[in-house]
Amino acid sequence: MPKRLAIFDLDGTLLNTIADLATSTNQALEACGFPTHPVEEYPMYVGNGINKLFERALPAEARTEENILRIRAHFLPYYDEHNADLSSPYPGIPQLLEHLQAAGIQMAVASNKYQRATEKLIRHYFPTIRFAAIFGQREGVPVKPNPQIVEDILSIVPVKREEVIYIGDSGVDMQTALNAGVESIGVTWGFRPREELMEHSPTHIVSTTEEIETITLQ
To answer: Does residue 216 sit in helix, strand or coil?
Structure first.
């Protein structure tokens, strides 16, 4: 069945943001006297919101609420200023979004990145795309894989669940789609391995943006 709504994760799906996330977290860790990490380690730290990122980046013995909040206080102003320094859309993503928009498919963003940064990055990298909703992590709203973010999007774009496709790069995303009762596409170019996607029963797994277009429009 052709889809009427495509919901995209942000980090690891639309944008490769790992270098900016790593740089900003390392800056905060260093400012607070903790060891830093190579960029290559960060894909396994992200995906569950920034507080979980900080928890994973801290030494095991230092993973306290107080330290997480200290890291957060250093991270936010730096990342707000530098979150588009090294990030970029994955190959084919701008064209995919343009094609879906031209075909009349409504689109939305569902991210565990905090709301302010989610909105900034989407507006910066995709200024011509008319997203029906752009939702990041918001105060009082549970993060993915809780399906509330999908429910909030469906309150704005009231389509049938079988007309929705959810696209993401992690087990968190695939579980979010399962919890919301919608089909999913797991992308293999993101932050998490194919094996993690498979553990959470994706409807489809793709390696190219052309496959997303085909699935969405078929």
So the answer is: helix
**pLDDT tens per residue, range 162-196:** 999 999 999 999 999 999 999 999 999 999 999 99
Q: What is the 3-state secondary structure (H, E, C) of 164-195?
A: EEEEECCHHHHHHHHHHCCEEEEECCCCCCHH
The DSSP call for residue 32 is T
CA distance 84 to 201: 32
Domains of the chain: 5-16+87-217 (3.40.50.1000), 18-82 (1.10.150.240)
Q: Is pTM beyond 0.90 here?
A: yes
Please, what sign has the CA dihedral across residues 26, 15, 182, 195? negative
CA 72, CA 49: separation in Å to the nearest integer? 11
